[in-house]
Amino acid sequence: MSELDSFRTAVRDYLEQASPSPAVRTLMDTEQGYDEAVWRQMANELGLHGIATPEHWGGAGAGMPELAVVFEEMGAALLCSPFFATVALALQALLDSGDESAIDEFAPALLDGSQVATLVLNSSLAAWDPSAVTITAQRDDADYRLFGDAGLVLDGHTADLILVAANTANGTSLFAVSGSAAGLTREPLSTLDRTRKVARLGFDGVAARLIGADGQAAAGLARTCDLALVALASEQLGAAQRCLDTAVGYAKERIQFGRAIGSFQAIKHRCADMLVLVEGARSAVFHAAQATDDGERAVAASVAKVACSEALLHVSLDSMRIHGGIGFTWEHDAHLYVRRAKATELMFGSPDHHLARLADLVSSPRHQPEGKL
């Protein structure tokens, strides 16, 4: 067994006891949406928050392959937690900003679990596009103040630290805002996927600290978003694998007409189709997590988002169908995975958006064979 497999087993074993179905159902109905004890345990005892953070800033110094494993297992368990918002978005945006003083100031509290953070990219959870940034920043002597609204922000109502992409006279910039800042309004929202919390934020002259150079945040945020796509695709992969495992297990146990339903050809074919989708998604995530060049990662991240979005949607629906009548009830967990599938399908760009992005990326000169345009 490789070190990565051992790490996966450790994370899976932990989540089996930390995020069983009853805990998920309890937490998804709370406004906060997560268990603080589990949150701190993941940070301090397992070191998950800093698994891909350089050792210089107190992390484990691993990389995206290890972090992808964490997100895959969290997706399988439907863990109710602000981990994605804090680690895949806010912490990564800090690291990609290149502002060492800001990383020194804000990263320790994110790594030890004493703070929750999130990142506001635009007014929704759409794909990254500098032209879609809706928040504006105005200079106020030595400080900045933010104005505007963000309609959909992951864990925005509980975040202690909010990083915000905003427009200044010099272009797209990144700012840090305290969750208790004057002029900041936060409204939790009811959404399709109740296991992941979303809020509406309003900025009315909110004091903010500039992260990095004024007008120079776009490139770093583009990289952050590509890495977040890989993390999200990993979540989708883990959820799809769990749906497949559950469906196959049920097909082996459910007796119909004196036989296990898994012995019927129609069920066999459906399970085989589900397996093909999951394995295709796994290959896409594996490649995206291994990519180190920014250009290669951009292509691989969009491929993974397309493959994993389609895999989770189809596999979760087929799992529900294989379970028959019980699969359509509120008491069964199948619908929670379908809800996660529909919500994540649209987060940071739909499959159609990423197919169009892929067409643009692969037609650019850097992706053409040598000597051809």
Automatic annotation (TrEMBL):
<dbReference type="InterPro" id="IPR013786">
    <property type="entry name" value="AcylCoA_DH/ox_N"/>
</dbReference>
<dbReference type="InterPro" id="IPR046373">
    <property type="entry name" value="Acyl-CoA_Oxase/DH_mid-dom_sf"/>
</dbReference>
<dbReference type="InterPro" id="IPR009100">
    <property type="entry name" value="AcylCoA_DH/oxidase_NM_dom_sf"/>
</dbReference>
<keyword id="KW-0285">Flavoprotein</keyword>
<dbReference type="Pfam" id="PF00441">
    <property type="entry name" value="Acyl-CoA_dh_1"/>
</dbReference>
<comment type="similarity">
    <text>Belongs to the acyl-CoA dehydrogenase family.</text>
</comment>
<protein>
    <submittedName>
        <fullName>Acyl-CoA dehydrogenase</fullName>
    </submittedName>
</protein>
<keyword id="KW-0560">Oxidoreductase</keyword>
<dbReference type="InterPro" id="IPR037069">
    <property type="entry name" value="AcylCoA_DH/ox_N_sf"/>
</dbReference>
<dbReference type="InterPro" id="IPR009075">
    <property type="entry name" value="AcylCo_DH/oxidase_C"/>
</dbReference>
<keyword id="KW-0274">FAD</keyword>
<dbReference type="GO" id="GO:0050660">
    <property type="term" value="F:flavin adenine dinucleotide binding"/>
</dbReference>
<dbReference type="GO" id="GO:0003995">
    <property type="term" value="F:acyl-CoA dehydrogenase activity"/>
</dbReference>
<dbReference type="Pfam" id="PF02771">
    <property type="entry name" value="Acyl-CoA_dh_N"/>
</dbReference>
<dbReference type="InterPro" id="IPR036250">
    <property type="entry name" value="AcylCo_DH-like_C"/>
</dbReference>
